[in-house]
Design brief:
Layout: H1 5-19, H2 31-38, H3 42-54, E1 58-61, E2 65-68, H4 71-74
Length: 86
């Protein structure tokens, strides 16, 4: 199976989060800065950021950039069972 460059960037960001280099609520590097650092195109980094945003790992804030999403927002909804009330 072919691995695309954006998937490598995505794994790189996930590793930074897992290692603690990027914590909850931390701002991610700018698209241009991260693309220069990794030696890939801006569109490759943008695609990785959008995929991580779709997965709920990061969030985009208008005019501010991308941030690691807070833990409480990443939790999937829990399924509840109704209980009868007496």
């Amino acid at each position: 199976m072919k691995t695309y460059r954006y998937q490598s960037v995505e794994k790189n960001i996930m590793a930074l989060i897992a290692s603690g280099a990027l914590g909850l609520g931390d701002k991610l590097p700018s698209l241009r800065g991260f693309s220069n650092r990794l030696g890939v195109s801006v569109s490759t980094v943008n695609q990785a950021y959008l995929e991580l945003e779709r997965k709920g790992v990061i969030e985009s804030r208008p005019r501010s950039g991308f941030f690691v999403r807070q833990q409480s927002q990443r939790l999937p909804p829990t399924e509840t069972t109704p209980t009868p009330m007496d």
